[in-house]
Amino acid sequence: MDEIVRSWTSELLDSGNLLALAVGVVALALVASHGTWGLLRNVVTIAHEGGHAVIALLSGRTLNGIRLHSDTSGLTVSTGKPTGPGMVFTLFAGYPAVSLLGLGGAWLVSSDGARLMLWISVGLLAVMLLAIRNAYGVLSVVLTGGVVFAVSWFATPAWQALCCLLFSWFLLFGGIRPVAELRRKRAGGRAPNSDADQLARLTGVPPAMWLGLWMLIGLGALLAGGRWLLLIPQV
């Protein structure tokens, strides 16, 4: 079986290969399917809340903790000035974080850095675990980190490359769906305190503008990351 995967992986070095496209289609199906999305959205929530946490720290705020819930929602609590650029950037960072992580993963995969991508992911999850403040959140991060660690430690390079390819595609597509979901929730009056609404209250910029900007970032990351994944250069 590994020889088959090794053969497939070698095709990743061919410009415009069909394998990378096929893996992208699988990732899209995982994101589009209600059944798989309900489970895998936890990974997206981890990335989303991690984005809030990182920018909160970089902007000088105090990170009080992160909670992940079984309905795939999350909450990152930080203290500091309630207005100003630090708060704005912290609120803004969640949705783009998923797409930008996917973009970074696509770059690493295209640069033959699959193993490095796996170890970076394990490191980020380990650091995030220190900030988790509820049992379900601990379980989610530990399980996700366990899977990534198992691939990095036990899988062959061929399987590592294939898994990282799938993971990158998943984050690129998974960064877009939550923005579309939030737009539908807001249209139904079911998300009055969303990141977009909080940003609107802080800045005076309408929530629709923030949603549009997040969608543009997600689509831009998908186009750039997809190009890297589909056009991996010959080495």
TrEMBL record:
Transmembrane segments: 12-32, 87-109, 116-136, 156-176, 208-230
Pfam families xref list: Peptidase_M50B
Top-rank taxon, per record: Bacteria
Keywords: Membrane, Transmembrane, Transmembrane helix
Membrane among keywords: yes
InterPro entries, per the entry: Peptidase_M50B-like
Protein name: M50 family metallopeptidase
